[in-house]
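Predict the 3D structure for this chain.
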Amino acid sequence: MSFERRMSYSDYLRLEQVLTAQQPLSDAHDELLFIIQHQTSELWMKLAIHELGSAIEAIRKDDLQPAFKMLTRVARIFEQLNNAWDVLRTMTPSEYTQFRGALGQSSGFQSWQYRAIEFMAGNRNLAMLGPHAHQPDLMAKLDAILAEPSLYDESIKLLARNGFDVGEEAHRQDWRQSRQESSKVRAAWKAVYTAPATHWMLYELAEKLVDFEDYFRRWRFNHVTTVERIIGLKRGTGGTAGVSYLRKMLEVELFPELWNLRTEL
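Done. Predicted structure below.
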């Protein structure tokens, strides 16, 4: 029972650092809930970034089976993040107002890890670099992501390597810019869905991507609902329009061709 000179559970997980990282700035009972909710979300996002990076590399090498496992894990991470909103929704508007002033200008809008996930998936809105411009180290990390093909870019390149005509998408060089929906890419994915037995690996990849975005969309929707339930239509602490801004984000599609081809099938 003695762990004086042995690796213990607490040592391995560095629990002293983790469990002392919650430092409420007010006496409000619910501020601890708010802090833990967001800290744990950032930890899950860290894992999502790790898995997405490995999935991108695996697809680049045509090593699809490991990529499927990683993308399944990312979808489950977002399922976990979705469930976390249920805990935060136990906080009422009255309880939030007791410590909201202590947040200053801080906002989830400023989460660089969330931005990294969007960039890695393929939503490369460069205007979203603005909140991080004052932190060169974070800008360097985000720039490194933008310099490489996204998850969806690599999936489209995979289509091209398998003989599908994806048009100019096969020759793109500027990965920093958000791509526009392509009729040729949609036609390629449609061919995959029309003959899944012939293109099973591509078919499974497509469904893994849709599964990931499905959970990602639910996370965004639950975010909007939770924010509206707690602060109504007030502006966000970080200066965004709050709920109206978050509602606009619901319209963003990460993999548009995969969703829009369903109307044609």
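The chain has one domain: 29-97+110-263.
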